[in-house]
Amino acid sequence: MISIKTFFHQASSTISYVVYDAQTLDAMIIDSALDYTAHSGKLWTEFADQQIDFIKENKLNIQWILETHAHADHISAAHYLRAKLKGKIAAGSGIKKVQKTFIEFFNLSTDETTGPEPHFDKLFEDGDSFMLGSYKVSVLSTPGHTNDSVTYFVDDNAFVGDTLFMPDGGTARCDFPGGSASVLFESIKRLHDLPRQTKLWMCHDYQPAGRELKYQCTVEQSRAHNIHVNKNVSCDDFVRLRESRDKTLDVPRLLYPAVQLNISAGRLPKKEGKGRRYIKQPLFFVGEIL
Ligand SMILES: [Fe+2]
C-alpha cells in the first residue's frame, strides 16, 4: 500500500500530501503552501519546512512536486521545495490557459511568467501516467473549478484538488475565469465512476458547522452524501445551485497574490528597485473617483 502523510495548513484550510513508496522511498508532494499575510506582505516557509523535515527524517527522495490546479487561496511552495529537495514541478496542461488569462489580467511580462526559466518541468495531459517507486500514478483531467484542474490517482487513492469537497462541504466555486459548473459536474461524475472503495483526498476542508477536520472519504460516501452532487442530483439542478451560490461569493482574500504567483508555480516576481519584490493589486472603481 502506498504511504500518505497529511499536512494541514490552517491559515488557508489547505491539506497538502506527501505520498511515497515506503520500499523505494520515492515520494511526491501534492499542493504545497507558503505562509503569507496579505496586509503585511510577509511570506515565510514554516509550513513547507515541516514537510521538508518529514521528508529528510524519512530519507524520502522527492521525484515530483505536483499541483492539482492554480490555487486562488494560498501561494504554492513548489519553487521553494524544488530548490530545497530537487524533484520536478508539474501540473495539468490547462495551466497554459490559466496563465494566458492572468498574464492579460495583470498585464504581466510573458517572459517573466512562463519563460525562459521553466516554472513547470512537466504539464500533464489527461491519461498521462508516471511511476512513483513501484506504483503507477495516473493523471485525470477534472476541470470545472478551474480549467487546469487534475486528479492524481495512485493505488486506489485519488487526490482530487478542489474538484470535490467532503460530502458535507459540497463543491468548490466555479466562477473563476475558465470555471464552469456543468464541466465540474462531468468531472465529478468521472470521479464518482471510479471503484466505490477508492479513497478521495481533498485539498481543502472548511470544517462546516465547526466539525473536526476531515479530508478523506470513499467514492461510495461521496456519491451517496455529497450535498451538491450525489446520485440523485441532475446536472441542471447542480448548475442552478452552484451558479446561484457563486453569485453571492466575494473574491477569495488571497486571489490576486495567489494566482499571480501560482501561474508560475509559486515563483516569486523579480526584484525591483532596492531589491524588493512586488505583486499587483487591480483597482475597480465603483462610481466616479477622480
Ligand atoms: Fe482551488
UniProtKB/TrEMBL annotation:
Pfam family for this entry, one: Lactamase_B
Q: Which residues form the Metallo-beta-lactamase domain?
A: 13-204
- Keyword Membrane in annotation: no
Question: What are the protein's UniProt keywords?
Answer: Metal-binding
Q: Which domain of life is it from?
A: Bacteria
Question: From which residue to which does any coiled coil extend?
Answer: none
SMART domains assigned: Lactamase_B (SM00849)
- Matching PANTHER family: PERSULFIDE DIOXYGENASE ETHE1 (PTHR43084), PERSULFIDE DIOXYGENASE ETHE1, MITOCHONDRIAL (PTHR43084:SF1)
Q: What is this protein called?
A: MBL fold metallo-hydrolase
Source organism (scientific name): Glaciecola petra
